[in-house]
Amino acid sequence: MGQVQPLPTKSKLAIGNVIGFIVIHLVALTAIFLPEYTFSWSAVGVMLLLVWMTGSLGICLGFHRYLTHRSFDLPKWLANFFVLMGTLSMQASPITWVGQHRMHHANSDTDKDPYNASKGLWWSHLGWSFYKTHDFDDKRKLLEYTKDFSDDKFYQFLSNNMIPVQAMLGVVLYLLGGIPWVVWGIFVRLAVVYQQTMSVNSAAHKWGYKNFETDDRATNCWWVGLIAWGEGWHNNHHAFPKSARHGLRPWEFDSTWMVIRGLKALGLATNLQIAVMEPDGSGRYFSGKVTKAA
């Protein structure tokens, strides 16, 4: 994990984040230690469905490939649905998540990167989220990084009501399936999706291989590619960040890209920007408005 590095300037412990993370995981553990109260097979099924909806459709497709990188266009109603799913992942509001991720790409693995893998595995995986840092959490700076959508009323609503929206989902799950659906559909699901996303920031900046030479630590990590819906082909993504497709070689399975292909076939995803690998191992954008890696 490397030598412990000093915190970024003007950082302070985010007590709410720490408490929230601990509570979510403690309640999730009741699914293992108190199964007589919290287990049902239908609850497991709901959890798996919501992991896909909030993790793959919400974070990977909605927050990341659509909202952050604008890899394709969507009808507004469908974009709103995917961003709502991302908000239900409780990782950050749309404005904060996208703003910080754009900072990550602009300054990857440096002190100006919120996740900065150069600070060690613990920091890039989880530690960074336990602190509020002026350089990364300043509202004016986040709005500057997200000025292409931060005035959207629906995204502002989600950013200001992330916890109430989650609570509403919890009420619906309780009415439909009782305590087991709440424990598995909210708490176990959040714990799983956290680890999926965090592994991209940490493991996919430490282990794996590179198809392209980039000025950062991003790698293609096969097991992160599998558990994180195709996001683990991270060296490909950093080389061609605007590409809707992350898995570029035949064995680089990218399940989120499969969903995007389905949306394209239905005429719902348009103006796709796609990277492809040439026979000589180089890469290029195949279509869309981007003509170079940017």
Question: Which key phrases capture this entry?
Answer:
single chain, 294 residues, mainly alpha, two-stranded antiparallel ribbon, 13 helices, 4 strands, globular, disordered N terminus, disordered C terminus
What is shown here, in short?
This protein is mainly alpha-helical. It is built from 13 helices and 4 strands. It has helices spanning 15-33, 35-38, 41-68, 76-87, 94-106, 121-125, 134-137, 139-145, 153-160, 162-201, 222-227, 234-239, 255-265; strands at 11-13, 131-133, 274-277, 283-287.
Describe what this molecule looks like in 3D.
With 294 residues, the protein is mainly alpha-helical. The protein has one domain. Helix content is 55%, strand content 5%. It is built from 13 helices and 4 strands. The strands form 2 sheets. Strands 1-2 form a two-stranded antiparallel sheet. Helix 3 packs across helix 4, helix 3 packs across helix 5 and helix 5 packs across helix 8. The relative contact order is 0.14.
What is the strand arrangement across the widest sheet?
1-2
> What is the count of DSSP helices, taking H or I runs of 4+ residues?
13
Principal-axes shape call: globular
Q: How many structurally independent domains?
A: 1
Structural class: mainly alpha
- Order of helical and strand elements: EHHHHHHEHHHHHHHEE
Q: Report the portion of residues in β strands.
A: 5-15%
Largest sheet: 2 strands, antiparallel
Q: What is the straight-line distance between the termini? A: 30 Å
Number of strands: 4
Rounded average pLDDT: 92
Q: Any low-confidence stretches, pLDDT <50, length ≥5?
A: 1-7, 288-294
Helical proportion, percent range: 55-70%
Evaluate the radius of gyration: 19 Å
